[in-house]
Fold:
Amino acid sequence: MREFVLNLHLITFVQILIAGAVATVWGIILIWRGKPFTDGFRSILYTVAISGVIQAALGGILYLFGCRPENMLHLVYGLIAFIGIPAAFAYASEDLSKRDMAVLAFASFAIAAAAWRAGATGFGGYCPP
Structure:
């Protein structure tokens, strides 16, 4: 069971990196072209947010199994990935202006960067047999 959860934790890591990068680039393109907020952009933001929540939940389960990352800073980066997009949505107004899209695109970048750093500080940790 622990190996299955660990593999899912690794898979969602890659998913956050890809979805976060796509959301960041998509947001920048929308801002640059002066286009309105699209349903596709909203969907990729939800994908990043849900992936961050799943990633954090799986990490919590691994922690309960006794697994520990190599560096405890891994947990801080995991928390950033967990709250990044929801916090950005709370900050953004209902009309989703150009400024709001910039906030959401930056949040996507921050989550992808936090996931990258979490990966750098988490590999090589201890997970009891």
Residues 5 and 64 are 12 Å apart (CA to CA). The chain has a mean pLDDT of 83. The helical segments are 2-33, 39-64, 73-91, 98-122. Residues 2-33 form the longest helix (32 residues).
